[in-house]
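Revision sheet: structure tokens.
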Amino acid sequence: MNKQDLLIEYCITELVEIIAEKQNIEYDKAMNLLYNSEFFSKLCDKETQLYRESSAYLYEIFQAA
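Predicted:
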């Protein structure tokens, strides 16, 4: 796993935790929301470089999508 992959995994973990907390839902449900969103594919696309942004900013984008 390279540095980009690690950063993406970190972002995913952080986002799931934020989603669960902000929306007051269980971790599994938050994970499902993120993984099944259009935003998730953009986050995993290394060309977008979204993994370089802060978790708070990524959550705002996720909410807007």
